[in-house]
Specification:
The protein has 10 helices and 15 strands. The chain is of the alpha/beta class.
């Protein structure tokens, strides 16, 4: 049996559906008060509650840890909530696994935010890592990072799992800590841990009416409400948008491989796109008279400029490759 924490959530529910299609028995631990699926055992509770977690772990051979608080925090007052849900929740899960002598495999929902800024190259200095962006530059419309040595423009490149981790906001810091906790636990216990670093996930069931929603979901919410999508900065930020069914397939690959595959892996489409391109694709999917996207020049200091992924390692080690078509996926999301 596979335990899916957060199995009633956006990504977790798709993982549950994919595991069911693969013929796996599933138990879900989630706070949702009214979530049910035929053939799925549901325990309603908090991953920070040791008693709930111990009950949920009984008899399971694999854990898929999707539960957590997502999105860029709005204020320093949010810090405790992110740490409580992501770090304390993961620590409680690991403690409980140790207490019941769990000997299966653990798949962790991580994120591309652990990288901070993506990978860049300078024509003169080669591979470089720019420092955090400055508010003065952003207010002046200088959105592109520059070489820390000569100040020249940088070329963004696909980032691999070997890149150093450099979280740029509280949510990102908690995702790094989740990985560190899980891999430390793996070294102590021998339990195999696979950390899946999701890039920008989109698809049916996205929460679109909260400040934690992803950019694609916010664009859909605007279009569905008759408002123009507001594209931050100049809209040229590069991201990798990966369909939620592909993300679910990556989880199934990690959970059902003949032998556990330890390590961290990018879960991505391998096709970088600009944020403005996403807005235009969704606008086209909605059709007239949907309002045209507006590029605002607005910014959030905790955002990074470019981050998109190298999919090679996941394909080689997990046998995972994203297969969902982008245009069809945008149309599905709009519908």
């Amino acid at each position: 049996m596979v335990l899916v924490t957060g199995g009633a959530g956006f990504i977790g529910s798709h993982v549950v559906a994919a595991l069911r299609a693969a013929g796996r028995a599933i138990r879900v631990l989630d706070l949702s008060p009214a979530w049910e699926r035929d053939g799925v055992e549901v325990i309603r509770g908090d991953v920070r509650d040791r008693d709930c977690v111990r009950r949920a772990l009984a008899g399971v051979t694999a854990v898929c840890h999707q539960a957590g608080k997502v999105g860029l925090e709005a204020a320093p007052a949010d810090i405790g909530g992110y740490v409580a849900h992501n770090d304390v929740g993961t620590a409680t899960l690991l403690e409980s696994m140790a207490g019941c002598r769990f000997a299966g495999r653990l798949v962790l929902a991580s994120s591309m935010v652990v990288y901070g800024e993506g990978r860049y190259a300078c024509a003169q200095h080669g591979a470089v890592r720019p420092g955090p962006r400055r508010a003065d530059d952003l207010r002046a419309g200088r959105f592109e990072p520059s070489c820390p040595h000569c100040g020249r423009p940088l070329e963004p490149r696909a980032i691999s799992e070997a890149a150093p981790l450099e979280p740029r906001n509280v949510y990102a810091a908690t995702k790094v800590h989740q990985e560190h906790l899980c891999f430390a636990y793996a070294r102590q216990t021998g339990v195999a841990v696979t950390a899946l670093r999701y890039h920008n996930v989109y698809g049916p069931g996205m929460p679109r009416d909260t400040r934690y929603a992803g950019v694609a979901a916010r664009f859909v919410d605007a279009l569905a409400s008759g408002r123009a999508p507001r594209v931050t900065e100049d809209g040229r930020q590069l991201r990798d948008f990966v369909h939620v069914r592909d993300v679910a397939a990556a989880n199934v690959a990690a959970l059902t491989a003949d032998q556990p595959v330890s390590g961290a892996f990018n879960v991505c489409s391998g096709q970088p796109r600009t944020v403005a391109e996403i807005a235009r694709a969704l606008h086209a999917a909605f059709g007239d008279p949907a309002p045209t996207p507006v590029v605002t020049g607005e910014f959030r200091l905790g955002d990074v400029r470019h981050v998109f992924a190298d999919p090679t390692l996941a394909e080689r080690r997990l046998g995972f490759r994203a297969r969902e078509d982008f245009t069809a996926g945008m149309a599905e999301l709009a519908a």
